[in-house]
Amino acid sequence: MVNYLIVGLGGGIGAMLRYGVQTQIVSHFGTIPPWGTWLANVSGCLLFGLIAGWGLRQSGFSTEWRLFLLTGICGGYTTFSSFTAEALQFCQRGEWLLAFLYIGSTLLFGFLGLWVATTIMQH
């Protein structure tokens, strides 16, 4: 139960950070193209990589800190960071076909799911 609270606290912080980034970008650049989402996704991946890389070098990087920083804050900021980290793990293990299937199917079915749902809700 404590781990859920740790993730929830980090996720709330990450979601507020994402909202802050998006509102600032939109106020300066507008919504077309969606630079706020782009910046959150790219910076979230960079942040995830920096924290994960730092954590690998630290003997005291506990499960709780990993859950709070990576799953919570980075996950709340952008799930794209988790998605790319998982795809990278396939690549690092030499499982290129699985990596491309994972990436392709996530994008394809995510897009199709959103399209189907919005189409249904418009009728």
Detail the poorly predicted runs: none
Order of helices and strands: HHHHH
Shape: globular
- Helix/strand class: mainly alpha
- If helices are DSSP runs of H or I spanning 4 or more residues, what is the number of helices? 5
**Helical coverage, percent range:** over 70%
Total DSSP E strands: 0
Largest sheet entry: none
Beta-strand content estimate = under 5%
Distance between the termini: 41 Å
Quaternary organization: single chain
Report mean pLDDT, rounded to a whole number: 92
**Backbone CA Rg:** 17 Å
Notes on the structure:
By secondary structure, the chain is an all-alpha fold. Helix content is 86%, strand content 0%. It has five helices and no strands. It has helices at 2-29, 35-57, 63-77, 79-92, 96-121. Helix 3 (63-77) packs across helix 4. The longest helix has 28 residues, at 2-29. It is globular. The mean pLDDT is 92.
